[in-house]
Design a protein that fits this description.
The protein has about 350 residues and is of the alpha/beta class. An eight-stranded parallel barrel has the order 2-3-4-5-6-8-9-10, surrounded by five helices. It contains eleven helices and 19 strands. The mean pLDDT is about 95. Helices cover about 25% and strands about 25% of the residues. The protein is elongated. The structure holds pyridoxal-5'-phosphate. Pyridoxal-5'-phosphate binds next to helix 9.
Amino acid sequence: MMFRPLLARIDISALQHNLQQVRRFAPNQKILAVIKANAYGHGTLAAAQAWPDADGFGMLSLEEAIMLRQAGIRQPIVLLEGVFAPEALPLCAEHGITVVIHQAQQIEWLGRAWLPRKIDVWVKMNSGMNRLGLPAGEFQEAVEKLAKLPAINHLTLMSHFATADEVDGVAMQLADFMVATAGMPYPRSLANSAAIVGHPDTHAEWGRPGIMLYGASPVSGRPPKHWDLRPVMTLESRIIAEQRLAPGDAIGYGATFHADYPMRIGVVACGYADGYPRHAPTGTPVGVGGHRTRLLGRVSMDMITVDLTGLPDCGIGSTVELWGKQIGVDEVAAAAGTLGYELLSGMTARVPYSYL
Ligand SMILES: *Cc1c(COP(=O)(O)O)cnc(C)c1O
């Protein structure tokens, strides 16, 4: 029995289907499935176990990477921001966890570290995003220095795009990276989801898809079915109460929505403390009993209110889809002025999950 009718259903077969789709776009690449942020809200271990054929996993947390090793995950695991202190390096080596090196201090840490085993390293160049990465002018020297360190096993070169979702969004960064790494005998990795679907010239040896694996759109404005991606998470709840409004009556905090005609309202057990976006306005699509209806008034901490006026067969107990196969997470995100990325990764700990 569940005490509150809110549930995130995770469709494992959709996770697997989406990885197959990545392979259709990038048939000759190795795929580093990105599972940071609790696998974009889907559950780190469940996602890793759903992809026995992924070539590796990208994430941020060393603790979670070790958890995956202890759960029997054998593929390469890349810490996308590397380590934050030198003490973490021996642990990475012990568990066979690859580190990204994106700044000079991390090279010094590696040079001074005593490691129980050799370690794999991905060296990151800043090609224009100006967030993480060694400057182009220092890249060659840094790679040569790393290649000489006895503690290092395999090297891979990487960079990350700022505007891969735009038509001409990768040309400059790609050119600068290829020039800075010309002649280096190492595999390369550049492409996130948007580059995998939109820029085949960036594919190189390793792709790093995240969002498309979860069936949300890598290019805003285009639905995931454009690339035959299937939504993985369905966030569902039920109507727990009904209200009738007379013309002029208002709903919820701030009394931001007023009825112009007699209305029937459903109260849904899901609010911003569950990860539903507080800024979703009146009109945001909501699925009720298989119909499409709309959010009315402000999102509360634990509840939202929806329009049941035209839905005589819906009432207390009716199922509600906040997002999933009927209502795309990208649609809800667009209404709330954000991205599917934020909604999926913003799921909160009080939401129960079910995997099938
Ligand atoms: C998050 C991330 C990705 C995945 O990006 P998507 O847009 O979700 O495909 C790839 N590479 C790095 C370095 C990342 O941080």
